[in-house]
Amino acid sequence: MAPPSCLLRVGWLPAALCALALALAPASDATSASLVGINYGRVGSNLPPPQAVLPLLEGLGIGRVRLYDADPAVLHAFAKTGVELFVGVPDQSLAGLADPGGADSWLRSNVMPFLPDTKIAALTVGNEVLTGNNSAVTRALLPAMQSLHGALAKLGLDKQIAVTTAHNLGVLGTSYPPSSGAFRRDLLPYICPILDYHARTGSPFLVNAYPYFAYSGDPKGIHLEYALLEAGYAGVPDPNSGLRYPNLLVAQVDAVYHAIAAANTAAARVVEVRISETGWPSSGDPGETAATPQNAARYNSNAMRLVAEGKGTPLKPTVAMRAYVFALFNENLKPGLASERNYGLFKPDGTPVYELSYKLPRDNSTFGGAGNSGWRFPGGGGGNVSGGYDNNGVNSGYYDISAASPDSAGPCRWSQAAVAGAMAVLVVAA
Q: What are the residues whose beta carbons fall under 8 Å from the beta carbon of 136, sequence distance 6 or more?
């Protein structure tokens, strides 16, 4: 069994978790019926061209896609399809976007030429920035988000396109039980003003949540059925809240809700947590014994069913979960363990890596003509090696929480200098 400090790994995940904040759905949410999306990463040398993605998405019944950059060929491919896009802003762009002029220029080059034919619902600024090792990018994160939001407001698009960022669960310093969820103390000077920003703009707080990492780190302390989201599992009670957690994914989400409430009570009333990445690898290195096609099929089928049914978490039962499955393709150029290259639902030639046992309902799709693309897989060979992730290409959705800062994060209380710095950062471009 994992130690109490390891909230994300155990099977106890609380539900009194965060008397938190979900009520405010972003104004940019154009397609409320489409709750399940997918991540389309392109860190591979053998991937098909973007037109080949359209029939795969239509076959899955998925109408929301998260991209990791604003590649023009990809944005053009989604024109007039009805697919709703989250478009990534790469980490290396953040410093230039902190300036309002840079944000305006970026939008005019990377967003405006594709509207309205391409349905862009949000910009995700950076990926897992706060748990990276680049302090300059960390400092630029919120100013870049604010500048982009301000530039969109000047164009009259701030109600149509949200601006947010995606975090991994390493931002938590305490995660067990979920009702004790708290952010790392060293990250509070960054997270607190980000929460204020989300509360003001109605944008969601995105998390990359991977029960796979938790299970792999503690296979004796976590039941596999609990990590795979199996409906028949009895669940785990949170000893503080009394809420019972049927699976590890909802426990991870509620731990984040609790952390938000502990850091910023006001933001907790209105900020919604959404899952920007979740998935399970189908293959891995010899030591990655849980990375099998069978487990991946079970996890992703169960995750799609859970989200598509419109269910909430034990803490937020009336707020439907939204999630993006990771990922569309296996990507052969991703660094790290072999599992990192085997998260895809599809091989590069368009054949399924495994069969899903769940079919998404028709109302999850937002397609309006993608099936007429006429594309058929010729056998792969797009050769696209860009369009991937930051953080050295690794989707590190879970960190060993016991190795994180042991201090529990209290409310957003900083020194006078820190408060002054945060206030400066919170000035939104007019």
A: 95
Tell me which residue of 86, 160, 71, 159 sits closest to 126, measured CA to CA: 86
Q: Would you list the DSSP string of 207-229?
A: EE--HHHHHHH-TTTS-HHHHTT
Lowest mean pLDDT among 9-18, 90-99, 300-309, 328-337: 9-18
Residue with tokens 């708290």: 182
pLDDT band at 33 (very low <50, low <70, confident <90, very high): low
3-state secondary structure of 368: coil
Q: Model confidence over 48-97: pLDDT tens digits?
A: 999 999 999 999 999 999 999 999 999 999 999 999 999 999 999 999 99
Residue 364 CA to residue 314 CA, distance in Å, equals 23
Q: Which two tokens stand for residue 200?
A: 């003001």
- Which helix (H) or strand (E) is 162 found in, with range? strand 162-168
SS3 (DSSP) at 182: strand
- CA–CA gap between residue 342 and residue 347 (Å, rounded): 9
Amino acid at 225: E
Q: What share of the chain is helix, strand, coil (3-state, %, to 5)?
A: 35, 15, 50
Rounded Cα distance, 243 and 77, in Å:
45
Omega of the bond leading into 314 within 30 degrees of 0 (cis) = no
Catalytic residue IDs: 128, 277
Note the pLDDT of residue 364.
Answer: 79
pLDDT at 7 over 60: no
Q: Tokens for 291, please give them.
A: 């990375």
**pLDDT above 70 (res 381):** no
Give the bridge partners for 177, in sequence order. none
- Name the DSSP class of 325: E
* Angle subtended by helix axes 100-110 and 135-154, to nearest 10: 70
Token pair 């994060």: residue: 409
User: Tell me: the pLDDT tens digits for 123-151?
Assistant: 999 999 999 999 999 999 999 999 999 99
- What's the length of the chain? 430
Are 333 and 311 a contacting pair, CB within 8 Å?
Answer: no
Domains with residue ranges and CATH for the chain? 36-425 (3.20.20.80)
Query: In whole angstroms, how far apart are CA 309 and each of 13, 271, 328?
Result: 21, 22, 21
